[in-house]
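Lecture 7 notes: from sequence to structure.
We start with the chain below.
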Amino acid sequence: MHTAVQAHADTTPPGGPAPVPSVARTGPTTAIAPPAGTAPPVDTVPPAGTAPPAGTARRRPGADRLRALDGLRLLAALMVCLYHFAGKNGEIANSWHQSPAQVFPTLSRLAPYGCLGVQFFFVISGFVICMSSWGRTLGDFFRSRVSRLYPAYWAALVLVGCASLLLPVVVHPLRSDEFLMNVTMLQQPMGVPRVLGVCWTLWVEMRFYVLFALFVIWKGVTYRRVVTFCVLWTLAGAFARVAGQPLTDELVMRDHAPFFIGGLALYLVYRFGPDPLLWGIVGMSFLMGQRYSVMALWHPGMHGDFHRNPHVIQLIVFLAFAVVAAVSLGRLRWANGRWLTVAGALTYPFYLIHEHLGWFVVRVLHRGLGLDARLTLLASVAGLLGLAWLMHRFVERPFGPRLRRALASVRVRRAEAR
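Predicted C-alpha cells for the same chain:
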C-alpha cells in the first residue's frame, strides 16, 4: 500500500474540541457551512451554470459527525493488512514458512484484492482534505498535516528499527544515514530504502497536499476553486500519460489523481448538494481510476499462487467510490457509533506498523511457538491493533498537539519580530 495508504483526519471542525487523529490524517468529519437560510459568502457561491440545485439545505456546523468515515478508514487498512499477510509471497511467505496460498487456500483467493484498500484510502483522503481545509489558512493546514502525520510516523520508525535489530532475518536494518533520511518522510524521492514499506503512500499523500495547498488553499477554498482544480488536474493527468515523462508523472500523479479528485468532488456533493457537474467529475474519476487499477494489478495470462480478475478489480474500485458517495448523500448516517471514532484513531498507526511488525509476529507465533495459522492471523491483527491504540494514546494524543503549538509559536514569534 496509503496508506495513503493518507495516507492519513481530524474529527471535529476547526475551532471546536480537541481533534482525534486517525489514518491519513485528513481533516474534520463534520460539515462546516452557514446555517440554513443564511447566504454564503460571495466567493463560495458556485459560478453560473454550476450552482447546486435551488433550495439545497446547507448543513449547520457540527450538525452531524461522519463517523462512518472513521470506520471506512479502518476497513481500508484491514484490506491492506489482509493483502500483506495472505495475498502475496515474499517476506511474509518466509514468516509462514510457505506460501500464504498454501496456508490459506480459500482466503488467499480474496486477499490479493486487499491492495485496493490504497485506492479506497485516496478517495476518502480527497473528501476529508477538502473538508479539513475549508475556512483555514495555508499555515493552519500545514501545521495540521505536520502534527498529524509525523509523531506516529516517527514512533513507527523506532519500533520497526528496533525489530530489525532483534530479528534482522525478517526486517533488514538500514544504515544510519538511510534511517535518518527516513525521518524526513522524503526518502522515496531521495532514492533511499524505506524503513516502512507502506510509506510510499505517504509520499503520494504529501504531493496531493502540496498541489491542493498551492492551487486551492493558498487563496481560500471555495466551490469554484475546487471544481476548477479537479477539472484541470484531470486534464493534466491525461496529458501526462501522453507526454510519458517521469518528472511529469511524479508531479501530476496521473495514476493516483483520479481517486483524490473523486473524493474532492464528493465532499462538494456533501456540502452543497448533488449537481450534474459534480457527478460528472466523480464519474470521470471512477472511469480513469478503474482503468489505472486494472492496468497496475492485472495482465493477460497472469498465473501463479495469486492472481486477480479484472472485473473484480473494477467492482472493488466502484464500491470504493460508491460507499464514499453514500456518505456524501447522508445514506450512512446510521453508522454513528462512538466505537467508530476509536476505529478511526487506530487506523493510521496500525497502517504504519502492520506490515513489517506483522512479519515479525507471524514468525514468532507460527514458526516459533507453533500456533495454528488462523489463530496466528487473528492474534497478529489483534495485537497490532492493540499496539496502534498505545501509539495513539501515548504518542499521537500528547505529542500531536504539542507539535502544533510549537509550530504556531514560531509563527507568533515571527509576527512579533516584524
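Points to note: Residues 1-63 have pLDDT under 50 and may be disordered. Residues 316 and 322 are 10 Å apart (CA to CA).
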